[in-house]
Amino acid sequence: MTNMAQPAAVHIGATPSFHTQPLLSGLIDVPGLAYRVSATRTIDECTMKALRGELDVAEMSLATFVKARERDDSLVGLPVFARKLVSQYAFCREGSELSGHKSLAGRRVAVPQYWLTAALWHRWYLGMHGVDTAGVVWCPLADDRLAGMSYPEGVQIDWSLKGRGPADVLRSGDADCFIFARRPLDMTGLRYLSPDPAGEALALARQTGVVPVTHVIAVRAALLRERPGLAGALVELYTRALHHAAQEVAHEAAQFLPLGDLEQDRTRAALGKHWNEYGWKNSEPALRVFCEAAVAQGMVREVDVDRAFLRLEP
């Protein structure tokens, strides 16, 4: 009897982090699923490799994935999302009179890219605080990663700060605030926009029921058609990696976060035990909010959430 050829190993792209390290290290197995993982230096690199078809499976910027789906349906999203409490990552100069997102009306706000996932979330937060985002002067520090992006009429965009760093534009006074999904590497002379960034971020999550999703695992649609059952196996793979990471993260980060176990307990108490779990049910509310924001802000005309993402559970 002739042995049937085994499917080729699935090529996964991953940016190193606690939740992807188990994959990069080859620690996680799922029966019947052969895979190999290539590490990418940044989410930009991983996203662009996915768009060029260089990877079968990849962690992508959610905003770029949504825009790519508007152009074609070659990629499909799994219900596997990275999450962050994005609202905390807003910064200004020490001594600034600014305090919280509500104070940004009419201000100059620097952002790494205008259509960055985190920027869409921050503009959503501004709307929640009653701030008209058309009255804000947006100052991108780089071009958007996708060529040919358009920008809404009536939005004020000043490209004169392109190529400069966030700390530089804040200290010089050329921007009043910088927003992102992480803080500047050098905080000298800078502070958080909110006087209580952690408390405010947790309060917003409880108030809205939304913990922002920022990255998505995307798969080549053609590969899913060729291999029934692959999507479910991949969700299981990522879920096992997440659970492994959850058990080890406090230990592995102890050199920098000596109270990591206690902090993890506090986060679960504040947001719920399963706040960052994968699966459609746990992800759908935040995903729909993001997609509605992408339409409202003019990044895309519409998002067919039910076709762009698979409704799977671990």
Task: Provide a descriptive summary of the structure in words.
- This protein is of the alpha/beta class.
- It has 2 domains: 10-84 and 211-308, D-Maltodextrin-Binding Protein, domain 2 (3-Layer(aba) Sandwich), CATH 3.40.190.10; 86-208, D-Maltodextrin-Binding Protein, domain 2 (3-Layer(aba) Sandwich).
- It has 11 helices and 11 strands.
- The strands form 2 sheets. Strands 8-7-6-9-5-10 form a 6-stranded mixed β-sheet. Strands 2-1-3-11-4 form a 5-stranded mixed β-sheet.
- Helix 1 (21-24) links the parallel strand 1 (10-14) and strand 2.
Topology:
Layout: E1 10-14, H1 21-24, E2 35-39, H2 43-51, E3 57-61, H3 62-71, E4 75-83, E5 90-93, E6 108-111, H4 117-128, E7 137-140, E8 156-157, H5 166-171, E9 177-179, E10 190-192, H6 197-208, E11 213-220, H7 221-226, H8 230-252, H9 260-271, H10 280-296, H11 305-308
Parallel strand pairs: 1-2, 1-3, 6-7, 6-9, 7-8
Antiparallel strand pairs: 3-11, 4-11, 5-9, 5-10
In short:
The protein is built from 11 helices and 11 strands. The protein has helices spanning 21-24, 43-51, 62-71, 117-128, 166-171, 197-208, 221-226, 230-252, 260-271, 280-296, 305-308; strands at 10-14, 35-39, 57-61, 75-83, 90-93, 108-111, 137-140, 156-157, 177-179, 190-192, 213-220. The mean pLDDT is 96.
In the CATH hierarchy, the third-tier topology of the largest domain is known as D-Maltodextrin-Binding Protein, domain 2
The helix count comes to 11
- By DSSP, the count of extended strands is 11
Strand content: 15-25%
CATH homology superfamily name of the largest domain: Periplasmic binding protein-like II
Rg over C-alpha atoms, rounded to the nearest angstrom = 20 Å
Unreliable sequence segments? none
Percent of residues in helical segments?
25-40%
Major sheet = 6 strands, mixed
